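Supplementary Text 2. Reproducibility record for the structural model of the 350-residue chain.

All settings were left at their defaults, and a single model was retained for analysis rather than an ensemble. We include the record here because the model underlies the residue-level annotations in Supplementary Table 4.
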Amino acid sequence: MDKYKDPTFWAYVAGVEKGLKTVTKVMYKKTFPKCKYCGGKDVVKFGTYNGVRRWWCKNCRRKFIDKDILPKMKTPIEQTTGALSAYYRGMSLDDIGEHLDQQYGNRLTDAGVYNWIKRFTQEAIKHTKTLKPDAGDVWIADETVLKIGGKNTWFWDIIDAKTRFLLASHISTTRTTGDAYALMKMAEQRAGKVPELVLTDKLKAYLDGIELAWGADTKHMPSKGFRAPLNTNMIERFHGSLKGRIKVMRGLRNVKTAKLLLDGWLVHYNFFRSHESLNDKTPAEKAGIKTPIKNWADVVRVKEDKSENILETDEPFIKVFKARASPRIRHKPQKIKKRAKVSISLKGLR
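Retained model, structure tokens:
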């Protein structure tokens, strides 16, 4: 019997073919990073530099390395997040640079670290400013003086007594009713509710400010000292931590920079710093806020979610990379006009 006419032979051949395809598929199954800049999938190897693999994106035509480093940065994310956390915990810029040098052999200038802080502080504020806490009915407000640009500037804040969540902060050069009113309305917008009681010191601006903001819906109680059941001890302690941080904080030379760094410190206080009195929880966790951002590492990586994902390909990587030549501008040759010949007659000249 001819084997080519036997159906079992062709079933065997089909099985072998299927097995070969499966083996080939597994052999060529590789992982390639997506482009850090555009998130494109069409990437190819582009040699190595100092033993580190480099890649080339055909979509945006940029080189990048497959390491835990942000685009356009040379420092790994681990070092960047460590510097941010150390800064908001009280370490100076110079001490952070020395620590990175000793730990990783990466000596950075104060300006380099400071640029990181400004950049990722803005990211942290952007991703947390719309989150609403489950605040209680008793809020505590107070103000303290800070030196900004060599001048006395007032820092107002209001905190929730139940969760210790800092609801709002306000910077001004005066202590007027308008400043107190602005603080109350900012806290209302953040919490999404009006408190039943606001505890403050004996500054008269609070009396009119709370009255203008909420009228008879909220009761105002001036503090009667630290030994009273209801007092401003909680917020005074907060101000002590804040002033300790400001002693080594660089950049409080104008109100704009001061507001950015202080808002960053408040994000650190609400979302990243655990409190022993809250059973080692952060104020945000105590206030029932659910967010994927738990620390500064999450803030740094939040923009990398779209670009650092790994693309798994089942097809063999056999494409030949051909760099596209830059378009050339071709100029049409200009025709040179021939000058008309001029004949001069010398007849009659002597």
